[in-house]
Amino acid sequence: MNYQPDRSKYPAKKADGTLDIDLTSGKYLKLWHGPNHPGITGNMSVELTVCGDEVVEGKVHVGYLHRGFEKLMERRSFIQCFPIVCRICVPEPDFNEYCYAAAIEELSGVVVPERAHWIRTMILEMGRINSYLMYLGGQAGALGQGVIGQWTTYVRDLMLDRFEELTGARIYHMFILPGGVRDDLPEGFKDRLEATLKEVDAVLKDVYDVMFKNAVFKRRSIGVGYIDPAWVDEYGITGPNARAAGVAKDVRKDQPYLVYDQLDFEPVVDHGSDIYTRADVRRRDVAMSVDLLRQILAKMPNEGPVMAKLPNVLHWQIPRGETYIRGECSRGEYGFYLVTDGSRFPRRVNVRGPSYTHAMTLLERMIVNTNISDIAALMVSLHTYPPEIER
Amino acid sequence: MKEELEKRVVKGPDGFEFTVEPLQDYYCAEAPRAHLPVYSKIVEGLFNWARAESIWILGFGTGCGAIEMRPLMTPRFDAYRFGIQWRPTPRQANLLMISGYLSTKTLKRAIRAYEQMQSPKYVVGLGSCTINGGMYWDSYNTIKKLDDYMPVDLFIAGCMPRPEALLAGFNDLKKIIKADKAEGANKYAENFDWYKANQKSVIKDWDMPDYNW
Amino acid sequence: MHKLYENLGKIIPLGEMTLQRANLAFITLDRRYLRSALHHLRDVEGYSHLVLLTAVDWLEEDVFQLTYLLSNRTADMDVGLRVMLPRENASMDSIHDIWPTAATYQRELREMFGIDFPGSPRVNEEFILEGWQEIPPYRRDFDTKKYSEENFAHREGRVTKDPASHMKELLYPDRGQ
User: Fold this and answer.
1) Is residue B106 part of a domain?
2) How many domains would you assign to chain B?
3) Between chains, do A150 and B74 touch, taking CB under 8 Å as contact?
4) Claim to verify: residue B48 and residue B107 sit in the same structural domain
5) Residue A70: its chain C contacts at CB < 8 A?
6) Complex ipTM above 0.95?
């Protein structure tokens, strides 16, 4: 980018580090990149102070989707929490169910059968593909290419058809329960899933040709939105945002869970750390997920129980303890911290969503000195989703 | 209240000083009016037909339901063949779709967006959270009954309703509009004080004008 | 894990350790030693990732338990540091200079639990709730159902059943009380 802004208009810093912005001076304008905006992912807002075309300061406002999940779960018994827990993260709901079920199993000592582990991994990978497809549509749309969203949402719909066949619902499945999964795979499911995976392969190739080779997309995204690798630990950056900065951080490889230690894969790492590289890392992640799904379908044991025997769930009491279960969802590290106290209800459930660290302090740091027209692309490239910030 | 909404004295770039009171000066001070049909029945029928066949939705994803609105814009479910489009601003839209639960913070913004829309306008409540609170019935931050705060023309039940259910809901809305029964905007204008009192009882920090036109 | 406990115990006095899994342990310590523990874990032992900072309200024992969860990615180890604070006027030192991302967690704890972190950036601004006038909602003495019934209009006709008694009537209708 050859444009050099006129920094003489920029505010100086006060003694405590905050910027000395005089709103009555006529140099600055306050804009709300607000909740009703096509350029944000979900329902959050950024309060911008701009000087001409460049952003001088940004404050992120969340809380538009707060339902008080952690408080509501303290009022519901362990099994009653399941319909509510999958609604914490809207585009990829199975992760919540998995982390919560695994936390309950660990604290209560329930052993999950082998085939259920494989089915759980399969569901999580399918959910990951869905989330990434929606992201690709959003990223292209933020930079002006609406057609990618149409293609990827269509293929995501085909995947949702597989989910509907397996679990009975398109978006909120409530399929992963403590002890395993609710039901076994239907007849012929593997063939239909393989056909859908071929569609995913085809759309990935089309997306690469149309989006990643497009001159406008490259011009607008290469070099924009830089994340320094030193920030990865300071700001708690996880997932593809960290991997595009060169730090090979993937929970599936570093702290394997479910059956990932039996699968053969390498995390996708790149060094550009701008919007283009993050989109490319996620595109290659989809290809890796498709490959993982094919490995899972090949290696899954053909028979076996899918649900362990549970005590009477309406009167289930779990002894006092606390644990933390993490997983790698499409946006980064997702985790559930569960504390029980021996009663029928959980004592405290804390959900650690990846957007919590990406969309707050990191975004406020990255948004300084960007152009207003790049903000939407920047927010989408961090792949943030507000429901998991404020739960 | 935020400092930029207070009444204050401002010095313009040429040195001239003037008082500004944002909540009064920038907004309409009157209450909304009901727009009753004035033309003959045939002409009103034609207008209602035109309104029903070109419903433009405000693209404000207020809750979970926004995720099932995205497939409607793609060729598989294709809401565009029914004349339904998504528009980014309230001034260009005539249907506000409350997609799922509403926290009180979003309710304030949704009211603002609704009042900025031009009559005739409609509201559709999507999902069971707008009907009776859904599964967040005991939450301290979500509203339980949408038609206390906004006049709702149609509720679509489900959690989430499928895109086909949404299309069936749009079809029902069209029938209501063509039968001249979609009187949400007029009802809002006639019972304005009752709606405003309900809204102010849940939104504790009211820093907007009463009518955001 | 025990080796970590020994190494840390040489620098500061520690409370009990709960070994939850082979790679997850929770160590209780006093609030005065938290910052030196964090520095030791981050700089010497390699626990460079702050996973979360949250609080648990033990109303019966009249304490807040703050949990600082740190993770060593390369060695696949997690350690949770537990700090007990009294519930009256709870406040704790801020760690936003060690990890800048802790500022967000501290803002949430200030709003939801009422635990103050003096010096943390923007800690007194409203974060998630707007215009909230009651006690911080995640405390155990805040009754969310009562608040919801009093402040929001509910639609009539909603029927709620206790699942245990409902299933009993459904499956065993002829058994008496």
Assistant:
1) yes
2) 2
3) yes
4) yes
5) 138
6) no
pTM of the model: 0.90
At A217-254, the pLDDT tens digits run 998 888 888 888 888 888 888 889 999 988 888 888 88
Task: Verify whether the Cβ–Cβ distance A66 to B66 is below 8 Å.
Answer: no
Q: How confident is the model at residue A119 (pLDDT cuts 50, 70, 90)?
A: very high
**B113/B185 same-domain check:** yes
Q: What residues make up the domain containing B154? A: 40-202
What is the dihedral sign for C-alpha A149, A155, A160, A161?
positive
Domains of chain C: 2-128 (3.30.460.80)
Query: Does A43 touch chain B if contact means CB atoms closer than 8 Å?
Result: yes
pLDDT of C33: 87
Smallest CA–CA separation between A124 and chain C, in Å?
A: 21
Residue A349's contacts (CB-CB under 8 Å, 6 or more residues apart) are A69, A70, A73, A74, A81, A100, A336, A337, A338, A339
Q: Domain check: are B44 and B24 in the same one?
A: no
Of B88, B90, B139, the CB nearest to A72: B139
For residue range A276-329, list pLDDT tens digits in order: 999 999 999 999 999 999 999 999 888 888 888 888 888 888 888 889 999 888
One domain for residues B150 and B59: yes
Q: What is the per-residue pLDDT for C90? A: 85
| Residue B79 shares a structural domain with residue B165 | yes
Mean pLDDT of chain A: 87
Q: Can you tell me which residue has the tokens 């339904």?
A: B84
**B196 and B149 within one domain:** yes
Residues B191 and B154 both lie in one domain? yes
Per the DSSP assignment, residues forming a β-bridge with A337 are: A324, A350
pLDDT digits (tens, 9 = 90+) for C35-90: 888 888 888 888 888 998 999 998 888 889 999 999 888 888 889 999 999 988 88
In degrees and rounded to multiples of 5, residue C108 shows phi and psi of -65, -40
Interface list for B 34-63 with A (CB within 8 A): 58-63
Domains and CATH numbers, chain A: 69-354 (1.10.645.10)
Name the average pLDDT for chain B.
87
Would you state the pLDDT for residue A3?
Answer: 57
Are residues B79 and B58 part of one domain?
yes
Nearest residue to A157 (alpha-carbon basis) of B74, C31, C12: B74
Residues shown for chain A: 391
Residue A236 and residue C167: Cβ atoms within 8 Å?
A: no
Evaluate whether B124 touches B154 at the Cβ level (below 8 Å).
yes
Q: What percent of chain A has pLDDT over 70?
A: 95
Write the DSSP symbol of residue A253: H
Residue B210 domain-assigned (yes or no): no
d(CA C102, CA C104): 5
Q: Over pLDDT 90: what percentage of chain C?
A: 10
